[in-house]
Write a structure and sequence with these properties.
Layout lengths: L1 E4 L7 H10 L8 E4 L5 E3 L2 E2 L1 H12 L3 E5 L7 E2 L2 E2 L3 H11 L5 E7 L2 H14 L6 H9 L6 H11 L4 E6 L6 H9 L19 H13 L21 H21 L9 H9 L19 H4 L15 H14 L2 H11 L1
Parallel strand pairs: 1-5, 1-8, 2-5, 8-9
Antiparallel strand pairs: 3-4, 6-7
């Protein structure tokens, strides 16, 4: 048996991987956890050597588990899992004689976008949140029903498992149960990693990235962080509307899938009926270390200018090198000279 946990990003993948890694030798007999690099060379690219390793373990009766939030391809400002159907088709063909399950967690888009933007900024991104969201809205797989439909068409003999991610739930226990690994070992305790920073921290970090300086810790210390958002109110409302429509459709799409309870998706929509956008944390002024502040000028803001500083472009280039498509990387390199 082979269980491939394919993310998605910002749905507790790091916590799941930490629990799997820590519980090696304890999750049960004949169960093996392999690192993502044992099956994937990079995001969306399968490693042939890993395929052979998995087949050897399966032949000996092992249940192999692989986890990679990038299994379906890269997540960047202009590419959201573009390789998903191709990867699913390859897995299906390579392991057609195995009991293959592809497990995907989806998260309400208005929650996911906040966490995704915070991660983007921590990676050196300088786009204003409005511009960041605009780049994602044209991506077809931001609509989860479209992604699930395409994955189902690509899996001829294998089983697709779609689980809703709940920010206040226990995703590790949910995955262990879904994968048939039994209960989470008690010695693990609560596994939670890669937690998104407060909205003020994200706003300050973006400003620091744009100005080419270090994290502005003092500018990030604000009151009421949990009650604010790094995204403008209209973006929050738009994404919540997308979520409500999409997850209603998703409940219909999974209704005929074995082991799925469509009410889990409709219940999430119903619980969010009273959604109200949180106040937006606008760009925070940089610290005294900023050249703009020491010269008495106002630092650049994406609201008034799309121009990025050279350090900001370099950081974006590094981000694209790790996560983005080659075309976007080349454009960035050309702008930096």
């Amino acid at each position: 048996m082979l269980t491939v946990h394919a993310g998605l990003h910002k749905t507790g993948s790091t916590s799941i991987q930490a629990a799997l890694g820590t519980s090696i030798g304890h999750v049960g007999r004949r169960q093996a956890y392999l690192h993502w690099s044992d099956l994937f060379r990079t995001d969306g690219v399968i490693n042939p050597d890993g395929v052979a390793k998995i087949r050897r373990l399966s032949a000996r009766g092992w249940h192999v588990v692989v986890s990679s939030e990038g299994a379906l391809g890269p997540l960047s400002t202009n590419a959201v899992y573009p390789d998903a159907p191709n990867v699913a088709a390859q897995l299906d063909a390579l392991f057609a004689d195995q009991d293959l399950r592809l497990v995907v967690y989806v998260r309400p888009q208005h929650e996911w976008a906040e966490s995704s933007y915070a991660q983007y900024v921590r990676s050196g991104g300088t786009l204003h949140p409005r511009d960041y969201i605009a780049t994602l809205r044209d991506q077809p797989y931001l609509r989860h029903t479209t992604l699930v439909d395409d994955l189902r068409r690509s899996l001829r003999t294998s089983r697709l498992v779609v689980r809703p991610y709940r920010s206040n739930g226990d995703v590790v226990s949910d995955f262990f149960e879904t994968a048939g690994l039994g209960p989470v070992p008690a010695f693990l305790g609560a596994q939670r990693a890669n937690v998104s920073p407060p909205a003020e921290t994200t706003a300050a970090q973006r400003q620091a990235n744009e100005a080419g300086i270090a994290v502005v810790a003092e500018a990030a210390r604000a009151v009421g962080a949990a009650a604010r958002s790094p995204l403008p109110e209209d973006c929050q409302a738009d994404l919540h509307g997308l979520f409500a429509r999409d997850w209603t459709d998703l409940s219909i799409a999974v209704a005929d899938m074995p082991g799925h309870d469509p009410t889990e998706f409709t219940a999430a929509v119903d619980a969010s009926r009273d959604f109200v956008p949180r106040p937006f944390v606008a760009t925070v002024a940089p610290s005294s270390a900023s050249p703009a502040q020491t010269s008495g000028t106002t630092p650049p803001d994406v609201h008034t200018s799309r121009a990025e500083t050279t350090p900001g472009l370099r950081q974006r280039g590094e981000f694209l090198l790790r996560h983005g498509p080659r075309r976007a990387l080349l454009r960035t390199l050309m702008r930096t000279g």
